[in-house]
Hints:
Elements: E1 5-8, H1 13-25, E2 31-34, H2 40-43, H3 47-52, E3 55-57, E4 63-65, H4 66-75, H5 79-89, H6 91-107, H7 122-129
Parallel strand pairs: 1-2
Antiparallel strand pairs: 1-3, 3-4
Helix pairs in contact: 4-5
Amino acid sequence: METSTFVYDGDCAFCTTCAEFIERRIPTAARVVPWQFADLDALGLTIAECEEAVQWVGADDSRAAGPDAIAKLLAASGPLWRAAGAVLRVPPVRAVAWPTYRWVARNRHRLPGGTAACSLPQEARERLYGPAGRPTTGA
């Protein structure tokens, strides 16, 4: 692969708003594409992975998900954004980033730009947060 790719949920208005912000404001050579229009097989991604979190597939075939994917995208951007990506990789910040990311994912339909269509499918919510809506272990 010649270009890095950042994959998001194109069915979610909140995610699409964020992707549009990236395309307008964050100078990066990475492709920013909704998973619904991406060649997931070529990227080595599954629908389940893409439903759970944004994904990064680097030109060097590096992989990352969630806030780690966001950090990779920022690292592949302009100087100010690279600094933000570096901060996102600092262990104490990263430790907070994952629970925050999961909260945003769980509530994205309630956030600015979000709609009811942004709500994660029941199966994905239970896989990520358990039947009671509590986060499962792991990153």
